[in-house]
Structure formats: C-alpha cells, structure tokens
Write a structure and sequence with these properties.
With about 325 residues, this protein is an alpha/beta fold. It is built from 13 helices and 11 strands.
Length: about 325
C-alpha cells in the first residue's frame, strides 16, 4: 500500500489491521519531542534506519503521511498531530496502569492525581481528601496547584485524573465534563503598615502607583485585573512581577510596597493580620465560576472515583441553602 494513496476511511479496528505497536507510540512522541529522526531514534536506543523503517511501515499501512520531511528534520502534519496526541494519552494511561497495579500489589488503594486552582485547594479539596483518606487509607494522592491554562492540557494528556478549575477560552469543551462549583471572591493585599493600609477605601488610581505581584497574562485573575483597569480607564502599574505562586507574591508584599491580588479564602488562610492587610474596595471582585473537570471518555480509577464522589457530596452540601 503506498503512503501516497488517497485518504480512506479507517475501520474501528484499524489499529489491529495496521499492526500498531507500543514502539510506534514511543516513536511518535519522540519525533514530536525532537523533530529529528536521528535524535528520536537515539532517545529510543534504536538506529536511525530502524526508526525510519518503523515510521515508513506504519505510514504505508495507514495510507497516510504523518510527518513532513524537511532538510532540517521532520514536522508533524495534521494527521501526525492527531496520532501524537493520542499516543501521549495511551502511554500516560499505560504508566498509570502500572502505578495502580504496583500500588494494589503493595497493599495500597492506587493513585490519584488532582490539579486545582488555588481557592478550592484551601477548603473544598482539603475536606474531600480527608474524607477519602478515612475510607481509603492506602490511596496515594498527588495535588498540583496551578492556573487553569496549565491544568487543562495536563488533564487532556492523562497526567491528571481530574481538575478543579475552569476551561479557558480557546479549548474545545466537548472532551470534558464540567460540574460547576462556584465563583471565587478576590481581594487586594498589602503589608500591614503599607501607606494604603490607613486609607478607609483606597481608590484604584492610588493603588496603581505601587508595584504589583500578579498572575501571568492570560490567567483568569489577571484578566479580571486587566478588565477592571480598562473599565475604569486606568493606566496599568509600571512595575509588575508575573507569578502564579502565591507564596512569592506574599513574600514581596510583606517586605516591600508591592500589592497583590488573590482569592479571599487564600488571603484569610495565609495572611496573618499582624503582617498583612486586605484592602477594602468599592466593588465586588469575583471571577467566573470554577468546577470539577473530568474527561468524558476516560473511566476513572476506583480511587479517583471515590475522591470525585466525596467532592460532589461536599459541593452539594455547600450549595444547599
């Protein structure tokens, strides 16, 4: 079968017909990482001719060209992008399978990887983790706190079982199940003896005269900040440190005139009134609702399913009047 033949419809069991192997999946991801056949082959500890034959054989059997050959290397075309994305998903799933089998063999209840934005990590997730640990004491749970733009791709790639976040603009929402939880109330923070701390209700204009520590451009809280300035026709502050790490932000706030924007729950948890001051504002500062996000086509492991059950129970309790 020539790889230059016209496109054709693949049967549901196409992977059997083309004799897809684990080595093909590893080669697809290696080619994506290195964009060079020689380096990809070296990373897999095979020769370049062997890698070339492996790629050529699968393209011949598919009847599709997956990579464009250039003098400086290879670039995936649309077909290649599709197989790379799913190859990563399958390899991540196989790794997770091994982790769970090892955990069960060791007498544990498996593993769960959770991603979350800051606010639900403070209260909602901590309650659900505690309740889940009581019923499954051997369950190994990892929690990564980051912005939604970083969590959603990791969920798609199989690195996370679930995420407590938002689905940012630009992402196709169809692969996800989104169960809304609630909005995040935000606030402005300064050190306790900051010049603005003695002002009854400092204006946004006054605040813009000071340095700021803010989430990076594109993050939802940063968008809320930028829209607030635009709505009030204000010039952004001259000095901004971009960081998604709240501890870095608070370290700057505690030792300088820097101001920061964070969620109210996080501020109430981390900001000792002896060191920090929550600045009053003339309007509510909320950001769009976050939710429990899972993959529609992915079956959760028993441990992940148990954790989501606890999360949903706590969410229902919070939402009941």
């Amino acid at each position: 079968m020539s790889r230059h033949m016209p496109p054709h419809h693949l049967a549901p069991d196409w992977f059997i017909n083309v004799r897809l192997k684990l080595r093909h999946l590893e080669l697809f991801t290696a080619l994506d990482d290195h964009r060079n056949l020689h380096r990809a082959a070296a990373s897999l500890a095979i020769s370049q001719p062997a890698a070339s034959k492996l790629l050529g054989d699968i393209e011949d059997r598919l009847g599709l060209k997956l990579f464009e050959r250039h003098p400086r290397g290879l670039e995936p075309n649309w077909y290649g992008e599709v197989v790379i994305r799913h190859a990563r998903d399958m390899l991540a799933s196989l790794k997770q399978t091994g982790d769970e089998l090892n955990a069960i063999q060791a007498g544990n209840a498996g593993t769960v990887a959770v991603g979350t934005v800051m606010d639900p990590a403070v209260t909602l997730l901590s309650q659900a983790l505690e309740a889940t640990r009581k019923s499954l004491p051997g369950l190994h749970i990892s929690v990564d706190v980051d912005v939604s733009q970083a969590l959603i791709p990791r969920l798609q790639e199989g690195q996370l079982d679930m995420a407590l976040c938002r689905i940012p603009l630009g992402f196709d929402t169809r692969p996800f199940i989104f169960e809304e939880i609630g909005e995040e109330a935000t606030c402005f923070v300064c050190r306790h003896d900051h010049p603005l701390a003695i002002t009854a209700t400092p204006s946004l204009t006054e605040m813009m005269q000071y340095p700021w520590a803010l989430q990076p451009p594109g993050a939802l809280m940063r968008q809320r900040f930028d829209h607030l300035l635009m709505y009030h026709d204000l010039i952004p502050p001259r000095q901004i440190v971009d960081t998604s790490d709240i501890l870095v932000s608070l370290a700057l706030v505690s030792s300088t005139d820097t101001l920061a924007m964070t969620t109210r729950e996080v501020a109430e948890l981390l900001c000792d009134p002896q060191r920090f001051c929550l600045l009053p504002t003339q309007e509510a500062l909320n950001v769009q609702p976050y939710g429990l996000v899972t993959l529609r086509e992915k079956r959760l492991s028993p441990g992940a399913a148990a954790l989501t059950t606890k999360l949903r129970s706590i969410i229902r309790q919070q939402q009941t009047p």
